[in-house]
Design a protein that fits this description.
This protein is an alpha+beta fold. It is about 20% helix and about 25% strand. The chain has a single domain (about 1-150, about 195-235), classed as 4-Layer Sandwich (CNF1/YfiH-like putative cysteine hydrolases). A 6-stranded mixed sheet has the order 3-4-7-6-8-11. A 4-stranded antiparallel sheet has the order 1-2-12-5, with no helix packed on it. The termini are far apart. The structure holds zinc ion.
Length: about 240
């Protein structure tokens, strides 16, 4: 079910699913009841209450949802989310970079997720997310970058590489067959480092390239492979008013 997971301190866990967890997206034409039961199975594995995991309506934008707002929609339209109260968060991907962020806040961990595809990365979704986390008092932020298509596989037109590299030079790449490409993870690493956020790139079984590793979902390799997710959650939610 999990490609990789870890306890990162402050009672926070971070994880990325593989296709063993099945497709977790409701927007890819899959049977909705099947997706809902997979999400429920995932919540059981995480040890969080059923229905508590917040998914986003991702639109390749830069909006950051505040998961702590009492009046937020059940499924916020956003490409990132933050919480200072331990709301379990999910971000769906199939080639884009899933980014999980954890920082130390004044009252416990402050965490977030972000969907860093080409558009969102170039438009500043990571900057916006880090700004929101720091606005909640997060210090010593660390980001985990999950499985995504690698620079050797993500072929794009030359003009697209040029436009992207003009904003973030680190994204310019070349495919293994010698044509223009983008390395989204290198771009995310570069942006996060510039924001003074520590970056961790977990290594797990098989390649971390979604296009090369059939245990992961890749929209480019197989549009029917659905979405894997990045997850961040608290294992022991802090009781309000507890010492
Ligand atoms: Zn690759």
């Amino acid at each position: 079910m999990f490609w990789w997971q870890d306890d990162v301190g402050q009672d926070v866990r971070v994880a990325f699913t593989d296709r063993g967890a099945g497709n977790l997206a409701l927007h890819t034409g899959d049977d909705a009841d099947a997706v809902r039961s997979r999400r429920a199975a995932l919540e059981r594995s995480m040890g969080v209450p059923r229905g508590s995991l917040v998914f986003l309506e991702q639109v390749h934008g830069t909006d950051v949802a505040d998961a702590d707002r009492a009046d937020r929609p059940a499924v916020p339209t956003a490409d990132a989310a933050v919480t200072a109260t331990g709301v379990p968060l999910a971000v769906m991907v199939a080639d884009c970079v899933p980014v999980l962020l954890v920082g130390e806040g004044p009252g416990g961990s402050v965490v977030g997720v972000a969907h860093a595809g080409r558009r969102g990365l170039l438009d500043g979704v990571l900057e916006r997310t880090v700004e929101q986390l720091r606005g909640r008092g997060a210090r010593r932020l660390t980001a985990w970058l999950g499985p995504s298509i690698c620079g050797g596989c993500y072929e794009v037109p030359a003009a697209m590489r040029e436009e992207a590299a003009a904003r973030i030079p680190a994204v310019a790449a070349t495919t293994s067959w010698g044509t223009p490409a983008l390395d989204l993870r290198a771009g995310a690493r570069e942006r996060l480092s510039a924001l003074e956020v520590g970056v961790v790139e977990p290594a797990a079984a098989g390649s971390s390239c979604t296009h090369e590793n059939e245990q992961l979902s890749s929209h480019r390799r197989d549009p029917g492979s659905g979405r894997i997710v990045g997850l961040v959650w608290r294992t022991a939610p802090r009781e309000e008013g507890a010492a």
